[in-house]
Specification:
This protein is of the alpha/beta class and 202 residues long. Helices cover 47% and strands 18% of the residues. It has eight helices and seven strands. The strands form two sheets. Strands 3-7-6-4-5 form a five-stranded parallel sheet, with helices on both faces. The protein has a two-stranded antiparallel sheet with strand order 1-2. Helix 2 packs parallel to helix 8 and helix 4 packs across helix 5. It is elongated, with a radius of gyration of 19 Å. It starts with a helix and ends in an 11-residue tail after the last strand.
Length: 202
C-alpha cells in the first residue's frame, strides 16, 4: 500500500515522462531533464560523427597500422580511430590490447600535429590509460573543474581519449562531448561492454 501510494505521487509529477515498455514488458519512465540531456548528447554525437576536422596523412596511418606487435584487429582499430571524423568509438574486451593500440594511434596523431590528452572517470583508470598508452591522462572531474576555471581548455587541434567510456553517466558525457564539439576537438571513446555500468544515470 505504501509503495502504491508513493507510485501514485511519483507518476503525478509533471517532470516524469512515460517512455513505454521495455523488452520485458515493464513500463519505463524518464524525466524531461534526462530526455533533454540525451537529445543534446545524441545531437553532439551525430554532428561530431559527420564532422571531419582531424585528418591524419594516409602514409602516417599506413605506417601506424603496420607497426610491429599489433594484431589484425588492433591494426584495424588504429586505422579507424585515426580517420578524420571528430568522434570515434572503440569497443574492446579487457586484455585485447586497447592501450597498446591507443599508444600507436597517439604517435600517429602527434606526428600529424595534434595534441593528445586522455581522461577517465576514475583516477585508477586514468593512471592505467597513461601507463599503457603513454597518453597523459587525468580524471574527467579534474578536467571539467579546470574548464570551469578557464584552464586546459580543449582546442581545435586536440584529440581527447576517454577510457572506460561506458562507465560515464549521460550528463557528464553530454558536457564533455558538447565542450569538444564547441572547441572543434576530436573525441575517442574507448569502452568494454563487460565493464561496470555507469554509476550515474546513463
Amino acid at each position: 500500500e505504501q509503495f502504491s501510494a508513493v507510485m501514485v505521487q511519483v507518476e503525478a509529477c509533471p517532470d516524469l515522462v512515460a517512455i513505454g515498455k521495455d523488452g520485458h514488458g515493464r513500463e519505463r519512465f524518464s524525466t524531461r531533464e534526462m530526455i533533454g540531456v540525451e537529445q543534446r548528447l545524441e545531437e553532439a554525437s551525430l554532428a561530431m560523427g559527420r564532422s571531419q576536422g582531424h585528418a591524419v596523412p594516409l602514409a602516417v596511418r599506413r605506417v601506424a597500422m603496420a607497426r610491429d606487435g599489433l594484431g589484425d584487429e588492433q591494426a584495424l582499430a588504429v586505422g579507424e580511430v585515426t580517420k578524420s571524423r571528430d568522434l570515434s568509438v572503440v569497443v574492446g574486451y579487457a586484455g585485447t590490447g586497447k592501450s597498446t593500440m591507443l599508444g600507436v594511434a597517439c604517435a600517429a596523431w602527434e606526428e600529424a600535429g595534434y595534441r593528445v590528452r586522455g581522461a577517465a572517470l576514475s583516477g585508477i583508470a586514468a593512471e592505467g590509460l597513461e601507463a599503457g598508452s603513454g597518453i597523459e591522462s587525468r580524471t574527467l572531474a579534474s578536467l571539467e573543474r579546470a574548464w570551469e576555471r578557464g584552464f586546459d581548455l580543449l582546442e581545435r587541434g586536440d584529440v581527447l581519449v576517454v577510457d572506460e567510456a561506458g562507465m560515464v553517466g549521460s550528463r557528464q558525457m553530454e558536457r564533455v562531448l558538447s565542450a569538444a564539439r564547441g572547441a572543434g576537438a576530436k573525441v575517442v571513446l574507448v569502452g568494454d561492454p563487460e565493464q561496470l555500468q555507469a554509476i550515474e544515470a546513463g
